Amino acid sequence: MSGKRPKKVNRPRASGGNRGAKVALLVALGLLAALVVVLAQLTAEKNSQPIGSGDTRTDARSVEKPAEKPTVSPEFEFYTLLPEQGNRPPRAEPEQSPTPSPPSADEPALESGGRYLIQAGSFRGRKDAESRKAELALLGFESRVTAVDIRGESYFRVMVGPLAAKEAAEAQQRMQEADIEVMSPRRING
Description:
Blueprint: H1 19-47, H2 78-81, E1 115-123, H3 126-138, E2 143-150, E3 153-164, H4 165-177, E4 186-188
Antiparallel strand pairs: 1-3, 1-4, 2-3
């Protein structure tokens, strides 16, 4: 038995060393509990004070709601706020009923009783023609896109009609006022 030593075993220490820590922990917990009780009493006293005893707060149930102001429609003042930048409102012109202008010398007079088509554009791309068709729809015109082949190239024409002579003249004028270039109405059979 010359070379072997007995193994050391960890044994719990005597409980006397931990006793001071346990006491300190109990004292801290007691102080914490006392602090919570004191704060709860202070809060309860503050909440139970009568309203008239030096406190300037008002009971929310006794306050009357002020009368609501009537709603006012918004008035935009863009043109008065930025006069130095040249923003002026458009002049209000009295509305006039659309009257067809008399045909000029290069425009033939439309025969009453006939049916007419108006070409409101010719485009190389279908997308552009559909865009014009939508623009015309916003103006209240029903139109269609027709594809034509001219010298091997495809074009898409936007056609409005068929319309009666008076309607065609009015439609042509309205489209020109909307800055849409149109061709003179073309008479169709039928």
